[in-house]
Amino acid sequence: MRLKELGERRVISRIRRAFSEPRTDILIGIGDDAALVKAPRSLLLTTDILVEDEDFRRAVYPPRLLGRKALNVNLSDIAAMGGRPLHALVGMAMPGDLEEIWLRKFMAGFRSAAREAKVALVGGDLSQADQIMISVTVTGEAKSPVTRSGARAGDRIFVSGTLGDAAQGFRLLEEGGLQEKGRGVRPLIRAFLDPVPQLELGALIARRKLASAMIDISDGLSVDLAHICEESGVGAEVEASRVPISSALRRFSKDPLALALNGGEDFELLFTVRPAKLATVRKLSSRFKLTMIGRVTAGKKIFLVGSDKKKEPLRAGGFEHFR
Amino acid sequence: MRLKELGERRVISRIRRAFSEPRTDILIGIGDDAALVKAPRSLLLTTDILVEDEDFRRAVYPPRLLGRKALNVNLSDIAAMGGRPLHALVGMAMPGDLEEIWLRKFMAGFRSAAREAKVALVGGDLSQADQIMISVTVTGEAKSPVTRSGARAGDRIFVSGTLGDAAQGFRLLEEGGLQEKGRGVRPLIRAFLDPVPQLELGALIARRKLASAMIDISDGLSVDLAHICEESGVGAEVEASRVPISSALRRFSKDPLALALNGGEDFELLFTVRPAKLATVRKLSSRFKLTMIGRVTAGKKIFLVGSDKKKEPLRAGGFEHFR
User: Fold this and answer.
1) CB contacts, 8 Å: A323 with chain B
2) Structure pTM?
């Protein structure tokens, strides 16, 4: 059945039923003019939008994973503040001839990600458009938030996980012919389709005050490091040989470093650490797969240092909308 | 200049500068992974989306007024809960070849509505799409929220303002040729283009506990009254002769009552009042232009009562997406 046959009100009432788990912090949930929740004194607010053919292709993106990603990219922003997510609102515009099963799978994915992170869907809005557009807003609590602006010369720069996998996964999906490439591409495809927000790591870093600045890598290391440097009024040096690259990326990309630097959509955490905290962070490095990739400098420029110790400017070459 | 020439980062930094008024309740504003605000214990959350060619046409909708409306439709939801709005987040997807001046005017309108309501823009996201899509999320405070579910048989039904003007204004805009129709159409056009959220009225009703149920009329009286009846488990009778219709609507519409009942986009408040509170509400009727249009009944059906006292079912014939 298509959405226009089902009708807006039935769509909403199905979503409402699927998300009606009781929670003591939700005084009024889906179904009134606004939701009413018990909020913490220090409230995080963040919003992200996903647009068909810009951020995803309907033909290749499983709706269940898209539902997970629509929430998880927001949760990654909460993780980057060292926060704990609480509530979500979702606005969607969809074509009237979209199959209802698509939306059902999307919402099932959204719900699975929400349950994992203990997030409650409390409101939303639906409209019609030629392209699918998804807007998600998330609230959170941050007792000791980590901003982008606290980095200081001498701090070390860390990232979680490996970089560039999602960008290569996206490329492989665009090229098609995945079956010929075999199982080895799976971790790359998954990194793009189903990124994992680093909520536990972000919260731990915040609680133990390990980072002087933190951001999630959504636009690519080069762009997001530039954000930290700009907001903190500092520069940086990144050692090319230290940038964490997965074996799958090495195998399937001709220039894995370029993807790791500029690829985007990794949703890993990038953070800076004062020298006094280095030992503590290093102790976490096995549990969370953390890698020191460089250091913060007094100048305002960002350099990439090669294995020959030569420095070249690291240009922010990430993804931009409005092309 | 077009957005794709200006570039995403410059667009964001302009918006950030335009909305950088200091407020003691904003600990971290635009420019980090998430905003951090001081929140009230009871927090309202609501979100609304507007889609080009579905909710507005770019060719006829002044961008400044669209910016006002994008915020004000959300503020109307806050008003319907009897709340006070606090913060806003905005997600926008726009074509890359959109003129930057369009966005500047849109944001100027958004800002003017935000200032009127003392709302702070604290975050957002931008993407690219073929149609303009705007998603706004608003937080608010509600010390004594009014839900949709408290109506009881015997309550009287009130609306603020006049109904159907916005729907007729929309029709006139679609038809074109406004100049020939003269000045008389202006209130109708304005009702559609620049609706006013009833924040003061909603807050007063909540503070003085005058309403047993309340909703804003966004989908049309028939639909929104049905929402109250459904959530409250009651029915209603609306007297056709009492439905408030403006002189402009009478002049320019062949069936003003149908528009007033089903038109939508009025953003007036619809609320139910216990008999004991009637005198108090009537005293407010001049200041806020309130009209008693009917009463809540024990059955679950909604009737329209004609001047001949004949009853007919009032069908919920409002606007529905997914066509």
Assistant:
1) 4, 96, 128
2) 0.95
